[in-house]
């Protein structure tokens, strides 16, 4: 017996994570099922299992058999809402990396079409409508990340990059309603978390957003037809959208089955959402988030997350990670430095990762000025006229407001050239400019900015 969406695991209890309003659940990696299938026949699923990537899967047995033959073609979609991807996208990009490393074919899908619609998942209000020019500029800006994680080419396991604008922008609306829309139940769509939560809070959802899940589901079918794709991967918040695509493929008579695979929601050991800093999101492009800051982000990982993040965000062998897991006390900082260097090397190259590590050592352990520290320019005239330290730290982005700066000074958190700021009346003057022509501003032991008077 199969449920309404073709679930092959009929009879299992409904998971609280399942968005499908039916009597059965898709196969979820929870409550013992993952333990029962801890060893797979495919290197792909064994790798993802061992490294902690798996949260949900629509059919473990079917996907495992396909990947074991090296015949799994899988994709992840990335909307072009910003010039860079962020930490939340890093984990799914690593899934594409391991798909390729285990003999299968990855596809990076650029959402040139779906970005024009706007994904409502996890949002309390409608996304801003972006111009075609903005979307194209963002798309071109984020492409470079994948060249560092995947091998592109024309071979059987070489990665390809495609854009859903190629088909979504060419759809005739009436044909879309007749050929695709008729397979969607409004009742089911209203039950999806991305819609239901917005409506329960009486927050407006536009008609264009309501159609997003149809576009994403159709993407899966179209990519399956064009490229023989059988797998869509993504974060756990995309589960409902992805399984809609699995179901649509079955309803539209695809000759091969489709599979869904998602990762857990990224949170830290303390329960905080991962990827946020005082300065905002942790971007993957260096233009939006410097390599040194990226290194520092990982160096400041909570102790309880180090091993998990080594598995997810580096390519270090598991045996080596197991040795790092045994480190205790102050030695855990060595593991954090390795995490920071390896994660940074993946996205910014080994040279910049090593430079960031060396700069951090010089700054934190030797009391010097690391060459990779962020640099901002300030008018020399302001400093000659005795610039308020409070204003300088706000301008440098180390704090958000004068009030926050004054509280930090009261807590002895501010230093200028490694000398503690005595009070909130202190000034920056020409005497603070070092022989290197800079002024080092520090907040605590981990946040530093170099001021260059111009």
Averaged pLDDT: 83
Number of helices: 21
**N-to-C span:** 74 Å
Helix content: 40-55%
Share in β-strands: 5-15%
Rough outline: globular
> Largest beta sheet: what is the strand line-up?
1-6-5-2-3-4
- The stretches of 5 or more residues where confidence is low (pLDDT under 50) are 1-37
What is the makeup of the main sheet?
6 strands, mixed
Explain this structure.
- It is a single chain.
- The chain has 454 residues and is α/β, with parallel strands linked by helices.
- The chain has 21 helices and 15 strands.
- It has helices at 33-36, 43-51, 60-68, 87-101, 132-142, 144-149, 165-168, 173-179, 186-191, 193-200, 207-210, 212-227, 239-251, 291-299, 306-313, 318-325, 332-348, 350-365, 380-384, 389-395, 402-410, and strands at 56-57, 73-79, 105-111, 160-163, 231-235, 259-263, 276-277, 280-281, 375-378, 387-388, 414-416, 419-420, 427-428, 439-443, 447-453.
- The strands form 4 sheets. Strands 1-6-5-2-3-4 form a 6-stranded mixed sheet, sandwiched between helices. It has a 5-stranded mixed sheet with strand order 9-15-14-11-12.
- Helix 12 crosses helix 13 (239-251).
- The termini are far apart.
- The model is unreliable at 1-37 (pLDDT under 50).
């Amino acid at each position: 017996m199969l449920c309404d969406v073709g679930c092959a695991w009929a009879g299992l209890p409904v998971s609280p994570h399942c968005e499908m309003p039916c009597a059965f659940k898709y196969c979820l990696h929870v409550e013992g099922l993952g333990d029962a299938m801890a060893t797979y026949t495919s290197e792909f699923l064994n790798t993802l299992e061992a490294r902690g990537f798996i949260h949900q899967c629509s059919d473990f047995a079917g996907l495992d058999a396909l990947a074991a033959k090296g015949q799994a073609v899988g994709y992840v979609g990335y909307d072009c809402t910003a010039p860079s991807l962020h930490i939340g996208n890093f984990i799914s990009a690593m899934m594409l990396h391991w798909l390729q490393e285990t003999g299968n074919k990855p596809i990076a899908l650029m959402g040139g079409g779906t970005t024009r619609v706007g994904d409502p998942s996890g949002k309390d209000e409608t996304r801003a409508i972006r111009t075609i020019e903005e979307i194209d500029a963002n798309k071109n800006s984020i492409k470079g990340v994948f060249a560092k994680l995947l091998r592109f080419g024309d071979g059987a396991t070489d990665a390809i990059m495609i854009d859903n604008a190629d088909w979504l922008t060419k759809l005739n609306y009436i044909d879309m309603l007749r050929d695709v829309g008729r397979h969607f139940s409004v009742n089911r769509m209203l039950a999806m978390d991305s819609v239901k939560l917005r409506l329960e809070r009486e927050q407006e959802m536009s008609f264009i957003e309501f159609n997003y899940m149809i576009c994403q589901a159709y993407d899966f079918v179209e990519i399956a037809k064009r490229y023989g794709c059988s797998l869509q991967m993504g974060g756990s918040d995309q589960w409902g959208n992805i399984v809609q695509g699995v179901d649509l493929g079955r309803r539209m008579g695809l000759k091969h089955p489709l599979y869904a695979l998602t990762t857990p929601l990224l949170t830290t050991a303390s329960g905080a959402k991962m990827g946020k800093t005082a300065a905002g999101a942790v971007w993957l492009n260096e233009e939006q988030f410097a390599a040194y800051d990226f290194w520092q982000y990982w160096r400041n990982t909570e102790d309880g997350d180090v091993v998990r993040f080594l598995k997810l965000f580096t390519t270090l062998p598991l045996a080596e990670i197991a040795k790092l897991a045994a480190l205790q006390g102050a030695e855990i900082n060595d593991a954090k430095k390795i995490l920071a260097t390896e994660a940074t090397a993946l996205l910014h190259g080994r040279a910049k990762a090593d430079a960031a590590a060396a700069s951090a050592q010089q700054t934190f352990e030797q009391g010097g000025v690391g060459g990779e520290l962020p640099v901002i320019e300030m008018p020399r005239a302001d400093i000659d006229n005795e610039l308020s330290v409070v204003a300088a730290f706000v301008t440098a982005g180390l704090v958000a407001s004068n009030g926050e700066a004054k509280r930090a000074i009261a807590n002895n958190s501010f230093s200028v050239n490694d000398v503690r700021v005595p009070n909130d009346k202190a000034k920056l003057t020409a005497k603070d400019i070092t022989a290197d022509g800079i002024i080092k501003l520090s907040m605590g032991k981990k946040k530093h900015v170099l001021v260059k008077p111009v």
